[in-house]
Amino acid sequence: MVKETGQDEDREVLDEGHIYFVYRPKVRAAGDEEEVAAEGLGDVENFYLVLKPHGGRFRLINIGRKRLPDIDGHERLWGFVEAIADSGRALEEGLRRETYDTKTRGERVRPSARPAGEGVYAMVRRGRNAHLAWALELPRKPGPVQKAFNIPPEASLVVSIRNPEKGGAPRNARLGEDRKAHYPKHLQAEFRDRKFATEDPRLLDFEGAQLVLIGARENPEQAYGIDLEPQEESESSAEIFRQLRFARSRHPVEPLLAGEWR
After folding, report:
1. Rounded distance, CA 218 to CA 229, Å?
2. What is the pTM of this model?
3. Is the Cα torsion angle 145, 148, 149, 151 positive or negative in sign?
């Protein structure tokens, strides 16, 4: 559990739990097993955040540009909730290797997702903004994979959730009407007719929820007066295998443990 380490009447912990960073290499032709591994962002199809709040459901968030926003430059990137799952197994099943046939290109392979980071997080309200702060537990020393995806050992992002009844998303970030989040009236009211909301993380518990992520801090625990309490983890104790059900036989672990591409 997150500990508050300082007095701050303008701070409220909204949400906390485990955070995972996951990527999926691009689809390849069947039989090209040696080409399935990624060697850089150019070989990556999707990059995800997975948030598992204590007592809540799993949120799979697809991040635009396939990396996190730059912290120092306070860069803004869009993302959307691709899936919500009641169990790690249900989420993991959608991230396994798939083989399928196409009419024009023959048999194709969608490689399994790879874990790129594991840690703990807290969503903290500060003033009018919500900040997603995390501390990595694995890998112990970030490598080329974490550098490419812009995953620091500790950092925070400002999170704003878009009102699906308002405009505001750039053309390349818009979702079709059938993919937008549809909130019940009591949650839609949280937007108060604004384009964005920041106060209620339950708005992330709907597939199609769109959000803007803005680089914020590199020292979130000091900035927000909290202790995220990351634990020393190893391959034998990693939560991604127990909680998210990433079997080593299906999901290569080199990116998580050594920070190396696979």
Report:
1. 16
2. 0.95
3. positive
Tell whether the model's pLDDT for residue 173 goes beyond 80: no
CA Rg, the chain, in Å?
Answer: 18
DSSP string, 90-144: HHHHTTS-EEEEETTTEEEEEPPPEEEEEEEEEEEEETTEEEEEEEEEESSS--H
Across 179-194, average pLDDT: 95
User: What are the residues facing 156 on neighbouring strands?
Assistant: 133, 217
pLDDT value, residue 128? 87
Q: How far apart are CA 114 and CA 22, in angstroms?
A: 6
Side chain identity at residue 236, one-letter code: S
Question: Per residue in 200-231, pLDDT tens?
Answer: 999 999 999 999 999 999 999 999 999 999 99
Residue 16: other Cβ atoms inside 10 A: 22
Residue 42 to residues 46, 119, 164, Cα–Cα distance (Å) = 11, 25, 31
**Once rounded to an integer, what is the mean pLDDT over residues 83-103?**
95
DSSP string covering 192-213? TT-SEE-S-GGGGSSTT-EEEE
